[in-house]
Phage holin family protein
Amino acid sequence: MIHPIFSVLISKPELVMEHVSGYAALVREEASTAGLEVAKRAIAWGVTTVGALLFPVLAGVAAMLGALHGFHWTLVVVPGIALAMAVGGFMAARKRMPAETFTELKAQIDADARALRAIGARS
């Protein structure tokens, strides 16, 4: 009645710990290759946030200065730079992760799931 995985957990916990440590090593290896891409995305989201916060502030200041001193082309360019920074950061942050990210880990999880289903079907 008890699933075979539970008997292995009870009788040989060192095997389970070895398997889990293998998963941890695989995740660490896969994450190190994907880490650069994740760091690029984090920086892009940071640039997007800074640009999105700066744009309305600079646009408000430009509107007030324009009302007091009249129109000047820098009153459009300065907030426009912040807006372009936000849009550029957003476009960079929205790029898809490479398709080959964590493929080995996914394959290992699928193989383990198939093995567990096969063991469960036999008992």
Remarks:
- Residues 4-122 form one domain.
